[in-house]
Amino acid sequence: QVQLVESGGGLVQAGGSLRLSCAASGTIFSINVMGWYRQAPGKQRELVATITRGGIRNYSESVKGRFSISRNNARGTVSLQMDSLLPEDTAVYYCNAVVFNINYWGQGTQVTVSS
Fold first, then answer.
1. I need a surface site. Which of 20, 66, 76, 94 has the fewest CB within 10 A?
2. What is the pLDDT at residue 73?
3. Span 79-87, mean pLDDT?
4. What are the strands, taking DSSP E only, across the chain?
């Protein structure tokens, strides 16, 4: 079992930056992939970025070059640095952890980018 708690969302103007953090508790050493997903109103949840235990990163095309994901395996944390934010980045952002092909989710944190 893994529990995830996100922090760091908020309101920012277009072009600004935010940093999201997620702390895992429980069997953190069993976590393989950690990542961030987002869901805008009326849309499906979509992948933003993931990172494996070994540090392999994957980004959606819409955030490449603007967002950066990092992870601390020993602490069970994952962060998302978001720069050059756009209004279309507005969404609820969810932390995700995969343990033996089981997905765990945080409660979500709101990110709002004003134009």
1. 66
2. 95
3. 98
4. 2-7, 10-13, 18-26, 33-39, 46-52, 57-59, 67-72, 77-82, 91-99, 102-105, 109-114
